[in-house]
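Need fresh eyes. Consider my entry:
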Amino acid sequence: MSKLAVPVGPRGRRLPARRGACGGATLVDAPAAGTPPLHGAPPVHGAPPVHGAPPVHAEIDNPLDLIAGHQLLAETVAPPPAAPAATGCGCGHPMCGEEDRDRTADARVFLVERHSVASAGLRSVLTTVPGLAVVGSTGDPLRAVAAVRRVAPDVILLGRGASLEADLAVVVALRGPDAAPDARVLLLRRAESTAEASRMLLAGASGCFPLDLAEDRIIGAVQLAAAGGSVFLPAPPPARSHAVVPPQHVGELPPQHAGLTEREREVLVQLGLGLSNAEIGRELALAEATVKKHLTQAMRKIGQPDRLRAALYAHRHGLAG
């Protein structure tokens, strides 16, 4: 294949160099002999046919090619291999650079973090991971909705706000129909209990983790969320179960406010388990008369007139397990 630096017209006139697909003036590739013409160009006559000619990176006069950035025209005998999607074409055009690589990444991550140092740290950790691309960030949750609508991330990392309620309101907005409804949102905070974890899931989040985790655990959490999973690191402790007091007993004094001594509380616990005074004495190593004394004082403090009602009180308030 020959290179003609200056094209020549039918009467020997010098023709202006055409602008290439990426906008710059380039050399014009003369078709090899026997190569099918490109876009209706006349074939070169009088040359022997040559098979297996390599493809050419040709120039196109169509102005739309300046927008497309580049176009690779394949010769029909030997089509070129497809360029790797994750690396672009390498032609240097602005539209063939980092943005294309981000669009083809396995997971696109957007940061909503009020503290710039924390945001920079997350970006430095995640951008080193193959398959993850940080496509944007903002320190203002109010601006995040419009931003995620433009970049359509797969995972959103939401920094900790003033309260869990405020963060959950941001989650609802980020996953709304006018933002990124298909994105997975991870809160950058701990779940203090399984009840808080449930509230996060109900709001549309996919989990949470604090920023003091090791880098590999942060990376793993983001990858798991991108794959469609839910992640809570560290695992939240179970919510403490509180005894449900029936409506007719709502006004009664709870044990922690009744002024019970440790012994009186222990006697009530054993009473709630169904033990007699003698059995309570053996269990607590007390004389039966001492048990009766502690029980009488406990019943007076909690406002229960007899053993049966005192035992039911112990059950209502969780003293009997």
